[in-house]
Amino acid sequence: MSNILIQNGLLIDTEWKRRADILIKGSKIIKIAPHISEDSLTEKANIVHADGMLVFPGLIDAHTHYHLISRGTVTADSFREGSRLAAFGGVTTVVDFADDDKVNLAKCSKERINAMGKEMSIDFALHQGVYGYREGLKEELKQLKELGVGTIKLFTTYKNVGYLVENRDELKSIFKMCGELGLMISVHCEDDKTIEEISNNWKGTFTPHDHADLRPSIAEARAIEYVGSIALEAGVDLYVVHLSSKAGLDVVRSLRDRGLKVIVETTPHYLFLDRSKLDGPMGPLYVMTPPLRTKEDNLALQEALCNGEIQVVASDHCAFTYAQKLKSSDTRTIYPGIPGTEEILTLVYSLVAQGEQLTVNELVNLLSTGPAKYFGLYPQKGVLREGSDADIVIFNPDYLWTLSRETTHSASDYTPYDGINVQGKVMMTYLRGRLIMGDNMYLGIEGDGRFVKAIR
After folding, report:
1. Are strands 441-442 and 17-25 parallel, antiparallel or unpaired?
2. Measured in Å, how far apart are the chain's first and last C-alpha atoms?
3. In what order do the strands lie in the sheet with 312-313?
């Protein structure tokens, strides 16, 4: 069992920041103090000098799709590759996704957990898709919670592929069941009726540019209002994934005024990219759902983020290769999704570095502590605290660089943030006291990642 002493870093937690040392024994943080002398230790320790560095708790990407089987293919980043790129971005835990076979939810989650456990080099939790109401569903949900999966995911669209729970009463019953069992409800919010109506009356083309008009922000707003009203009736909280628009944000504000607790997640692409990226020959690279919006939407979400109205920033990492994305220019057949886990920290840190009103403490809450709390992983994860897992990121806040295809570690072979100048870079990433990335070298061990049970 090795000991590690990280000295002279500026430690950043949600509630405090201070220059201090961290002593790690095995997989846990065992001591945090202003100064821990090497001479005071009873056992030899590896010394890590963190002068001039920020020290964060390991990041939690609360929304990933690694090795997703979709549309007759598999996403570019497997569990191995997802772990690798995550380590380069300071991400030590991801919350991935399991499909619903509409027979047994716990079985679906077990299969996903087993598959991830064989290949992941970082830790992981899970949210379980629920695609239909059926007899015995409450018992399925109970078994799911006992397994350690604390969140279900619902869709208000994709009826054509069987994801949509269309009946309102059935949806309300699912909400009530989850409330009684203490399961979190997360929802992909795009109103299927709005999208279908637009599609049926559409007379235009189907270029990437049209994608933003075929799935407009009003569809997101209507879906948030719909599931929000059900959550209010059922007396449960609501987690909105990948909020993309000012229109959706306004509905969230209205629901909160009416007494609903709404936890909002957004992504870097909705904060920093706009629909102009959909124009031209490279447009297919930027197709995802919901689509990219306007610069006005970007600024509204950035302002909401700095004002504390958004609680989580995640990636919705769903990567297809550069070649796969450019294979079609028809939005109906372009593989939807983009990479993003690796870039989360440096992109969000730009709001701190540029003198915006986001503090480093708030950054940690958005990327680590908040997700840990909402997904039932706290205080094992998401915090610099004695007794917590030694998931630690050493971050150089002064490092200037440019994101590009050459800097990404995704098997997609591109980054949607190509050409963006950023400040701040991950230098070292520790998972449970073991260095998994340092000196720009990946040191993760396949199968070393562990499933982390949600505890509520």
Report:
1. unpaired
2. 31
3. 59-61, 91-98, 123-129, 151-155, 184-188, 238-240, 262-266, 312-313
Say which residue the tokens 């795009």 belong to.
190
Task: Give the DSSP H or E segment for 25.
Answer: strand 17-25
- What amino acid is encoded at 187 in this protein? V
pLDDT(42) > 90: no
**pLDDT of 418-430, one tens digit each?**
999 999 999 999 9
In this structure, the strands spanning 151-155 and 441-442 are unpaired
pLDDT tens for residues 367-416?
Answer: 999 999 999 999 999 999 999 999 999 999 999 999 999 999 999 999 99
Q: Is the C-alpha dihedral spanning 120, 125, 128, 129 positive or negative? A: negative
CB atoms within 10 A of CB 164: 18
Asked if 276 and 22 count as a contact pair (C-beta separation under 8 A), the reply is: no
Q: What is the DSSP string of 402-455?
A: E--TTT---TTS--TTTT-EEEEEEEEEEETTEEEEETTEE---TT---B----
Q: What is the DSSP letter of 292?
A: P
Convert the pLDDT of each residue in 325-378 to its tens digit.
Answer: 999 999 999 999 999 999 999 999 999 998 868 999 999 999 999 999 999 999
d(CA 143, CA 103): 13
Burial 410-422 (b: 16+ CB within 10 A, else e): bbbebbbbeebeb
Alpha carbon distance 88, 110 (integer Å): 28
Q: Smallest Cα–Cα separation from 86: which of 388, 442, 352, 372?
A: 442
In angstroms, rounded to a whole number, what is the distance separating the alpha carbons of residues 156 and 148? Answer: 25
- Phi and psi at 428, nearest 5°, equal -145, 140
Helix axes 295-306, 344-353, angle to 10 degrees: 80
What is the value of pTM for the model shown? 0.97
Q: What letters, b where the CB count within 10 A reaches 16 and e where it falls short, cover 317-337?
A: bbbbbbebbbeeeebeebbbb
Q: Which residues 6+ apart lie within 8 Å of 43 measured at CB?
A: 3, 25
> Which residues are CB-contacts of 305 (< 8 A; sequence separation ≥ 6)?
266, 271, 313, 351, 358, 366
Report helix, strand and coil shares of the chain as percent, to nearest 5: 35, 25, 40
What is the C-alpha to C-alpha distance for residues 435 and 433, in angstroms, rounded to an integer? Answer: 7
Output DSSP code: residue 123: E
